[in-house]
Amino acid sequence: MRTPIVKLDPSHPEKAFSLCREVVHAGGIIVYPTDTLYGLGADPKNFDAVRKLFTVKGRQADQPILLLIKDANEVRDWAADITPRAEALMKKFWPGPLTLVFRARPDVMAELTGGAGTIGLRVPGNAITRQLLASLGSALTGTSANIAGKPGPRTAREAAEAIGELVDMVLDGGRAEGGTPSTVVDVSADEPMVIREGAIPSREILG
Domain residues of the chain, as ranges? Predict the structure, then answer.
């Protein structure tokens, strides 16, 4: 039996967000809309939930999981330090399609870092996603809602058809924009390094 799809009313999202909060706080996994694709959301401080996430995706243990946060104030919950260049990039490009990779705090689960000791963070450009994160009061894992190696879903129904039987709730917030993925920049050292060029050109990051 497939997990029911909960339709989000953008003008009155509280009921849907409350259902998401119940699932995530209980250690479950939700599918939710972001500004790029639909994502798989689990509590990144719940070991069992994170392990379940890897099982759902069929993801290898050495592959890190980025987190979505509601604003830059949450960076210090996950990052061991923030360099001046990282601070400047946060102010210029967040919210938006920029994932910053920080040196992780010692208490961040190794499963999230892929054993590398770093953690990727992003403030999404989608206001609904940020509202959801604010309602939850915590970060969410931000990996796409698909089996590893398969196309990422742009609608709740596509996500439900791919992995609906493996998650606890699907939040339908309309069609995700898709398109170019976020640019990924390592800011764990003093000088930023572009790991993956995406929606934001490298020249804008390093210039």
Answer: 5-206
Distance between CA atoms of 137 and 4, rounded to whole angstroms? 24
pLDDT tens for 104-130 read: 999 999 999 999 999 999 999 999 999
Express as a percent the part of the chain with pLDDT over 70.
Answer: 99
Comparing CA positions, the residue from 205, 204, 185 lying closest to residue 193 is 185
- At 171, the pLDDT band (50, 70, 90 cuts) reads very high
Q: Tokens standing for 197?
A: 């060029």
Structure tokens at 132: 């959801």
Q: Which residues contact 126 (CB under 8 A, 6 or more apart)?
A: 33, 34, 35, 176, 177
Runs of H (alpha helix) within the chain: 14-25, 47-57, 84-93, 110-113, 127-136, 156-163, 202-206
Token pair of 55 as six digits: 């099982």
* CATH class of segment(s) 5-206: alpha beta
Strand partners, 6: 171
CB 65 within 8 A of CB 45: no
Q: Cα(184)–Cα(36) distance, rounded to whole angstroms?
A: 14
Rounded CA gap, 171 and 109, in Å?
Answer: 26
**How confident is the model over 26-85, as pLDDT tens digits?**
999 999 999 889 999 999 999 999 999 999 999 888 899 999 999 999 999 999 999 999
